[in-house]
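Recap from last week: sequence in, structure out.
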Amino acid sequence: MAYCKEIKDYEDHKWYLIDRKPSKCPHCGNKTIAKAVLGYPLEEDWYNDKIFNIGCLPTPFPEQEKFGCNTCDSRFFKDTPKARAYLNGESEWYDQYD
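Predicted structure tokens:
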């Protein structure tokens, strides 16, 4: 059984820890979940529903998002030991570059 756990107390973002791609967004209920792509997108990528454009700047979370909702901008991060350690206050975001 897949799970999607909301990351609490992280500003006003709609961020979730997941173990696999969600079938629908837990925030808005739509099925517009797409693979997250980091970097400057091409013009046609803006209109591609199969891509969730992250942009050029990575998030300050130790793991980059794997999926995103094209309707409400929710972001989904893979649940890893590094992500759990960050959420528990055991590491800082810059530890990802060590």
